[in-house]
Amino acid sequence: MPTASDYINEPPAFMRILAYGAPKTKKTLWAAKAAEAGFNVTFFEFDTDGARILLSGLVNKQGIEKINVIDCSARLHQNAPYGFMRGLFTQNETYFNETTGIAAPSPLGWKTGTTYAHINLKKLNANDIIVIDSFSSYVDSLLEAYAANENISLVEAEKQTWDGWGWMGRVATWALRKLTSLPCHLIVIGHEQNYEKRLVTAEGKTYTAWIRQQPKSVSGPHGQTLSGYFSDCLYFYLKRNENRISTRTKEFSDVGSRIMAPDDHPYAALPFTKIADYSKVYAQQDLLCQAVDFGVVGR
Description:
The protein is α/β, with parallel strands linked by helices.
């Protein structure tokens, strides 16, 4: 039977980081900066503002060469975030049509000249970082997927007496389990929400029992479960017009780190590489990204 000493010299585990907070608090840039240290960073870009725009001019040339961006954001007539994740984890290999937003097991039948991203998760390695940007947009896509499956018009959703929360929660949980099982490092970017727990007294009066700051998911109760999938939950915020990152655990907030001391850090004082150093995880320049490549049908 192995003892604790047997694990001392084992390779470090893959990092599982949840980076969440208000919009425009530089979470995407924080993740992208890992490429400047030599990691291969692949963005599964579900947000419509797009990492390509956010990263323009903000990451050095060497870093840009280590970054892949797959635009999985929603199209006008295609629920790309939901379809991409479903295809990614149910197919041996995934070809993502960058024009239509459709994920398929091969590009067979696609028009000549169609550009695509090819993903083979089995080829991920210890120098790869997958970035989900953002989990918020992905869970939003689950509502659209449920409505399409049940033939419900979201325009008239307030008039419907349907309940898709259970289905959406199960799919979101499935996605989290698959993501956190990837043989590489993982950064999931999310947005904050305040979950208000309301109870009813014996007299029938409703009151707020507590308000919890947590990452956004399909529902308040499901959002409470997200932090359990990650070793480090970082909260990004603004204070007096200064970007900051918190690792300080507080009552009724999902923040904390497995290895970093609880504190509120200036943004520049807690780069990804600092957490990697504490985790004894270092970039391996000779390990190139083999899991993602891009192509054109007919070429």
